[in-house]
Amino acid sequence: MAANKLIESVHMHLGTCVPFLDFQFWIKQPGKLQNLIYSNGVIVIKDCPWNKDEFLTEIEGFGVFLHLRVNDKISDSPVSILSNEKSNLNEKHYDKLGYGWHSDFCHLKAPASYTFLHGKIIPGEGGDTIFTDMIGAYDGLNLQTRQRLATITVRHSIPGKLGSDNGGEGEFVDHPLVRSIPGVDKPALYIGSKGTASPLGMPKSDGDELISRLIAFSVQSKFTYKHEWSVNDLLIWDNRSTMHTATDFDRGKFIRRMHRISFQGEAPTPFDKDFVYKAN
Fold first, then answer.
1. Which residue among 110, 138, 148, 174 sits deepest, i.e. has the most Cβ atoms within 10 Å of its Cβ?
2. 217 SS3 class
3. What's the pLDDT at 3?
4. 83 φ/ψ angles, rounded to the nearest 5 degrees
5. Is 195 left (phi over 0), alpha (psi -120 to 50) or beta?
């Protein structure tokens, strides 16, 4: 299988482009596709022609779907339509999801592992998606900071009424700030989302400042990849090792329509402290 790096100066894991014909082979072997995601964080598949129903059918064997819940209403379908088109009787559209740095469904006991996002209508300008490498960002911190962060637990709250059908989740959940990832031999920062993440054991103002500083450090250009969408691009990313954000666009001028599916992961666990306490 041919896999071409998207960025030459990438730090650690970030970005591989897979031809659609090769991807059709990989999707039938979830274990091998997972290994590719582990190694790269973000995968781009060009010219994926699936409609919404085909999108769901083709990847349904990849894991356990997460269903979006908004205002206590659970979506019937695991396919979320992210679009500024008007909703109709057959489809509910979500216009403003995905803005601001975050990892999907971080407020769940078992947050999202992978997200698949399929671009169907693309704005002529803007509407990009930016990813940052949270393994590389953590590795880029000095030893003293890594040691401190490895001891911190973060409380993740539900962002407003937005959540997921995930077996009776409460109003918040606690996860380690430095987490392990199955199949990956390095730790990652797991911030979740600014505004819904509160480090425990410190005043709220100090915790908010810490989260802001970590996000600012993590989204430096040396850790990031910006994807400029084309019609029928399919992106897959690992929420455990990356954060992402959408960029805005002119809604009065353009339509943006994306189909999204997220899969349930495992409860985050701390990484081996003997590793994170070592110097680079």
1. 138
2. helix
3. 44
4. -160, 150
5. left
